[in-house]
Design a protein that fits this description.
Largest sheet: 4 strands, mixed
Structural class: alpha/beta
CATH superfamily of the largest domain: Winged helix-like DNA-binding domain superfamily/Winged helix DNA-binding domain
Mean pLDDT: 90
Number of helices: 5
Order of helices and strands: EEEEHHEHHEH
CATH topology of the largest domain: Arc Repressor Mutant, subunit A
Number of strands: 6
Strand content: 15-25%
Distance between the termini: 34 Å
CATH class of the largest domain: Mainly Alpha
Shape: globular
Number of domains: 2
CATH architecture of the largest domain: Orthogonal Bundle
């Protein structure tokens, strides 16, 4: 059984999903791949300890604190490659960014491969089922391109600005994914 509750964030309503012990999903409304990793129906159950801990985490995040993803029991559903990428996302410090290419190099090493395509990493980043907490918004293109956020580029910009990044070095693509 998968349980759900909502959280009223400054960015809009957030849907959370749990297996009862761990957080398996966190999505903003209208997000690309919204709840796509949850095949079963969800039952509303807001009193779970994991939901209380997640709401506290989000409260601190939106108050400008720097809670770490590892503070919460996370269990995103995905394949081995996706889980490796999502684990690497959790290592990106608050207020910093990395590139799809940098993550691809780390994944190649971890998977004992000669190389890994940035596009493959982008696919895994885009399917992150626990947005904000697993900070996929902190991944940008090598040249400062802000493409690739399932919540849309305006939301990615808000999250990065919230974390204090100097946005002058980034740009919004004229066309592309998740604009």
């Amino acid at each position: 059984m998968i349980y759900s509750t909502t959280y009223a964030s400054p960015l809009g309503e957030i849907l959370m999903a749990s297996d009862g012990d761990s957080l398996v999903g966190l999505w903003l409304q209208r997000q690309k791949h919204f709840a796509s990793t949850v095949a079963e129906s969800m039952e509303e159950k807001s009193g779970l300890a994991v939901f209380g801990a997640t709401k506290d985490w989000l409260d601190r995040y939106f108050d400008g604190k720097k809670p770490a993803p590892r503070e919460l029991p996370l269990a995103p559903k995905g394949g081995e490659f996706q889980r490796i990428v999502w684990d690497l996302l959790c290592e990106i410090p608050y207020g910093e960014v990395t590139t799809y290419g940098a993550i691809a190099k780390k994944v190649a090493v971890l998977m004992n491969k000669e190389r890994m395509a940035s596009q493959a990493v982008g696919g895994a980043v885009g399917r992150n089922p626990i947005s904000i907490i697993i900070p996929c918004h902190r991944v940008v293109g090598a040249n400062g391109n802000l493409t690739g956020y399932g919540g849309g580029i305006p939301l990615k910009i808000k999250l990065l600005e919230h974390e204090g990044l100097d946005m002058s070095r980034f740009f919004v693509p004229k066309k592309g994914t998740a604009i």
